[in-house]
Specification:
109 residues, 35% strand
Length: 109
């Protein structure tokens, strides 16, 4: 599974800022008026969140996300295992309640 397959499905959505877009890491900023569609697309590839917004992250969540900035209470984490590793996706809502950062990473075994 490649991150590009996920981002290709987001082509119709508005991206406020493209910070990084590589085979191993994606960081995008979008406005919250389309957050339901972003969640729908990521869920289609990665399933339901392993750590929903408002749930305390487990030590495993913290360990697994440490190299990509960690995970906090107000953030949502998706994760799915594949043959060659796992993909994590994190939704980081901004305090302005207008924007969210999406970080996705391919974590190789």
């Amino acid at each position: 599974m490649e991150l590009k397959k996920i981002t290709d499905c987001c082509g119709e959505l508005k991206i406020h800022e493209k910070r990084c877009l590589t085979d191993e890491f994606v960081e995008l900023v979008f406005q919250n008026d389309e957050i339901d569609e972003w969640f729908r697309i990521v869920s289609a590839f990665l399933g339901t969140p392993t750590k929903p917004e408002g749930q305390e992250p487990t030590q495993r969540d913290l360990d697994h996300t440490a190299t990509t900035g960690g995970i906090r209470l107000e953030q949502t984490l998706f994760e799915k295992e594949f043959e060659n590793g796992s993909i994590i996706a994190k939704f980081w809502p901004w305090k302005d309640k207008i924007h969210t950062t999406l970080r996705m990473a391919m974590l190789n075994k």
